[in-house]
Amino acid sequence: MRLLLDENLSDGIVRRIIDLYPDSAHVKTLALTNTDDSIIWEYAHANNFVIVSKDSDFHQRSLLYGHPPKFIYLRIGNSPTSKIVQILRDNFDIIIQFWNSEVESILVLA
User: Fold this and answer.
1) Are residues 74 and 84 in contact, defined by beta-carbon separation less than 8 angstroms?
2) Are 25 and 49 in contact (CB under 8 A)?
3) pLDDT digits (tens, 9 = 90+) for 7-32
4) What is d(CA 105, CA 94) in angstroms, rounded to the nearest whole number?
5) How far separated are the first and last CA of the chain, in Å rounded?
6) Which of 94, 88, 91 has the alpha carbon at shortest distance from 12?
7) Residue by residue, what is the 3-state secondary structure of 55-86?
8) Are 49 and 3 in contact (CB under 8 A)?
9) How many other C-beta atoms lie within 10 A of the C-beta of residue 100?
10) How do residues 77-99 score in pLDDT, each as one tens digit?
């Protein structure tokens, strides 16, 4: 499973989760910063990524359009990078189940 981290998350997260989520990326490394959410959405769809963000706009888009791509909504407020890394690592099994689900399009982690 490949995660695509939105620009509201640190790009340093990727190197700290790559062992669990190979081929994951940050929008910064893909030259997608300051890009409209629809372009990120289409990129994730075309390249088989799960979007990870604290942005409620992606939540709304996921409710409206469903999946793919799938969306992990981090409802954690202003949290340090270490907490975000821990959430993604601690919830690995749940995230894999979400990825494998045919019907779920949004996973909310808090």
Assistant:
1) yes
2) yes
3) 999 999 999 999 999 999 999 999 99
4) 13
5) 21
6) 88
7) CHHHHHHHHHHCCCCCEEEECCCCCCHHHHHH
8) yes
9) 9
10) 888 999 999 999 999 999 999 99
